[in-house]
Amino acid sequence: MEQLHDNSISERQRQILSIIIEEYVSHARPVASEQIVSSYHLNVSSATVRNDMAELERAGLIVQPHTSAGRVPSERGYRYFVENLMRPKALPQDEQRKIRHQFHQVEMEADEWVRLAASILSRTVHSAALATAPRSTAVRLKHFELLAISDSRIMLVLVGHDGTVAQQMLHVDQEWSQEELSALANHLNGALSGKTSHEIEAWVNEPANLQSILTIAPSVLVTLSTMLAKLERHETAEIYHEGLANILNQPEFRQPERMQQVLDLFEHGHVWTSIIPSIINQDGVQVIIGDEAMGEGMRACSIVLARYGLGEHLAGVLGVLGPTRMPYSRSVSSVRYMSQLLSDLLQKSYNSPFSGQGETQSE
Amino acid sequence: MEQLHDNSISERQRQILSIIIEEYVSHARPVASEQIVSSYHLNVSSATVRNDMAELERAGLIVQPHTSAGRVPSERGYRYFVENLMRPKALPQDEQRKIRHQFHQVEMEADEWVRLAASILSRTVHSAALATAPRSTAVRLKHFELLAISDSRIMLVLVGHDGTVAQQMLHVDQEWSQEELSALANHLNGALSGKTSHEIEAWVNEPANLQSILTIAPSVLVTLSTMLAKLERHETAEIYHEGLANILNQPEFRQPERMQQVLDLFEHGHVWTSIIPSIINQDGVQVIIGDEAMGEGMRACSIVLARYGLGEHLAGVLGVLGPTRMPYSRSVSSVRYMSQLLSDLLQKSYNSPFSGQGETQSE
DNA sequence: CGTTAGCACTCTCTACATTAGAGTGCTAGC
DNA sequence: GCTAGCACTCTAATGTAGAGAGTGCTAACG
User: Would you give the DSSP letter of residue A196?
Assistant: First the structure.
């Protein structure tokens, strides 16, 4: 049925591609035709497999490191596998139980859960794992403080209704006493508590609201609003990571420059800031292979990511990063299960008084 | 004059030890007697140097990887060098200028400075660098919030007078409404704002203070006090790090297990939590060689650390981590200079309204 | 007694040649 | 369309020899 659909890859060729990928992923060395017929009973000879491999190579799905070597999947090959061939099955029951057990063992907080999730992921998939703590997608201001730091600097600290915090320095050209600042903060807290970034923005535009307030009020308000907005977009989210050693030990990262790139990624992860917001807004597990989404030079790396959270209200991202030679099926299963699990835990823990406007629900 | 002082290491032998260390540090390969006399004019022959080297080996300061190889410094050798031989001179003027330039280029905040400091350190010393943001050594409560998260959980968020923040979850056996919690927080904020952890502790012990307050008040107060105390001890301090690739590329970290150890150190740095508080309370640059302070297995690593900050009030830690084969002299100079520079910057920036009780100073 | 030239000895490293073997592509035949 | 068979290519492993690096020791020298 599917034979014609993508030009002229026969069913058996697909099967061979699958085998090559599986074998290569687990043994990290080129796969030979003889090896395929002996390990899997295809009812054809190695010569036939060779012919098929020649075809797969022509289609750009596998490559040959050198003349007398077996075949290795190409990036396109992995992509094809992930999209058409692989069928990730759920994690085995006992593994699921073991994982759940670790979570239930100790009563913990969201941040700890996320850290634990990264740790477990990195171990089950044997690669690096990463995760961000859950954040509300619509943060409401709970309270903020203005602190006089020096003549020209004021620190603004805000607390969201969900407990998230953010700090930012404000530069002003006039000196303000702590008393003046506290008074201003008091006044504004009364008016703004419970508002979102948009609502604050709107409030500022009501001329009446700004009368008889200190002259720095506008800049304070703008800063407040943008800080809330940043929180919502997860721009300031801290990213937990774990298991770097797992992938840096892999043969493909022996070359110093490859290693350098991966480490850069984790030390000042500019890349994440572009990827994470896009993941947050999608359902399901996303697979990024090679340099598909990241800059050139992140070849040799793949990422499997998923969103977790409570519907619209609270969300985070978690996933694994490994070499392109990665067990995609297992990774996808693990990431999917873990995101589901984390969502469930959050559900139980935050049957959330702040999830909506006034709608408080209880069990 | 110093000849006798430590048993029978002659002046020339010390000189030879210095040369061996310098050479080995920069070229990463065992140093031969011939190499020493040809590169440095010692006015003696290689045979003499060999005799001295035999003696140095007997003293445990150098070792020989195999029979026909040159010598390599031992951990004791490095330690001896750091304590008796090396004289770190200030960084060259132009380098100092270049570094200062990077700081002055952009007006920044303390956190950014610290990050930049780590980044510069890692580049000037060519190893990994780490730094913690400055924290007050006596944090006063500015404000706190109680947030109803679910039936049995309350989140406590506190803001210090210097802008530091901390969050913690509280478990309670009774359900509290957000209104009740806010009222309690309001009341307590009024009474406690400006107090240190000790003062809060004392306040709690005044029986009169706890009358007619909600029953969860005591646990809230205890939590508040311990959170403040943790802040002061830098236990929750985030550690910036940079330049991991610099050291993981070094030949001594080729073995996977070595690499593993270093990465563990950075991923969940339990080690730091014990080292950092002890550094905070000392002046000057500390050098930790091999597994002197860290667990077994951190062989092959050395750390050079120093405190920076404003007298008693505000302090942080910064330093570099590299292989034991590290340019100690340069590291010490760099760390010293950087800590001085950071202290100066803080001095100028935080001519601090909150450094003492009420003593506000201005320029 | 400290220093040195000389030398034997040990060990490593490199180059080179050789071989074994892995794996393919192709051809001819079923 | 499949397969047996084979020539061809390239890699990886092995062995050998020689060069070179570096030492320790000894005997001689001031």
Answer: -
Q: What percent of chain A has a predicted confidence (pLDDT) above 70?
A: 92
B163/A167 touch (CB, cutoff 8 Å), yes or no: yes
Q: Can you point out the beta strands (E) in A125-164?
A: 128-132, 135-136, 141-150, 153-160
Q: Is A107 helix (H, G, I), strand (E, B) or coil?
A: coil
Q: Which is nearest to A19 in space by CA: A2, A39, A5, A3?
A: A39
Task: Kindly state whether A267 is in contact with chain B, defined as any CB-CB distance less than 8 angstroms.
Answer: yes
How confident is the model at residue B1, as a pLDDT?
A: 38
Rounded to the nearest integer, the mean pLDDT of chain B is 87
- In B192-212, which positions are buried (b, 16+ CB within 10 angstroms) versus exposed (e)? beebbbeebbebbeeeeeeee
Q: What confidence tier does B233 reach under pLDDT thresholds 50, 70, 90?
A: confident
Angle (deg, nearest 10), helices A93-105 and A328-349: 40
For residues B195-200, average pLDDT = 94
Q: Does strand D come within 7 Å of the CB of B66?
A: no
Residues 235-254 of B with CB under 8 A from A: 241-242, 244-245, 248-249
Q: CB count, 10 Å around CB of A168?
A: 17
Interface contact B256, partner A, CB < 8 A: yes
Of A228, A221, A201, residue with least CA distance to A135: A228
Least confident window among A71-85, A169-183, A252-266, B3-17: B3-17
pLDDT greater at residue B295 or residue A46: A46
B44: distance to nearest CA of chain A, Å?
41
> Is B18:B83 a contact under the CB 8 Å cutoff?
no
* pTM for this model (two decimals): 0.86
Judged by CB atoms closer than 8 Å, whether chains meet at B260 and A241 is answered as no
Q: Does residue A170 belong to the interface with chain B, where contact is any CB pair within 8 Å?
A: no
Q: Looking at the complex, does the CB of residue A191 fall below 8 Å from at least one CB of chain B?
A: no
Provide mean pLDDT across the span B298-306.
89
Mean predicted confidence (pLDDT) in B244-270: 85
List chain A residues with CB under 8 Å of B142: 145, 147
Higher pLDDT, B122 or A347: B122
The four Cα atoms A144, A149, A152, A157 give a dihedral, to 10 degrees, of -20
Looking at chain B, the whole-number percentage of residues with pLDDT higher than 90 is 59
Strand partners, A158: A144, A166
CA distance B26 to B202: 57
Collect contacts of B289-294 with beta carbons under 8 A, ≥24 apart: B289/B75, B289/B78, B289/B79, B289/B82, B289/B324, B290/B75, B290/B78, B290/B324, B292/B75, B292/B79, B294/B265
Nucleotide nearest A51 (Cα, C1'): C25
The torsion angles phi and psi of B26, rounded to 5 degrees, stand at -85, -25
Neighbouring residues of A41: CB distance < 8 A, sequence distance ≥ 6: none
> What backbone phi and psi angles, to 5 degrees, belong to B289?
-110, 130
In this complex, the residue with its CA at the shortest distance from the C1' of nucleotide C9 is B68
Q: For tokens 């140093």, what's the residue?
A: B31
Nearest to A249 by CA among A323, A299, A326, A329: A323
Cα A124 to chain centroid distance, Å, stands at 17
Residue B114, C-beta contacts closer than 8 angstroms, at least 6 positions apart: B131, B132, B133, B134, B240, B316, B318, B342
**DSSP letters for A161-195:** TTS-EEEEEEE-SS---HHHHHHHHHHHHHHHTT-
* Confidence label for B189 from pLDDT (cuts 50, 70 and 90): very high
- The three-class DSSP label of residue B182 is helix
Say whether the CB atom of B71 is under 7 angstroms from strand D.
Answer: yes
Categorize the per-residue pLDDT at A297 as very low, low, confident or very high, splitting at 50, 70 and 90.
low
**Residue A276 confidence (pLDDT) above 70:** yes
The pLDDT of A201-223, averaged and rounded, is 85
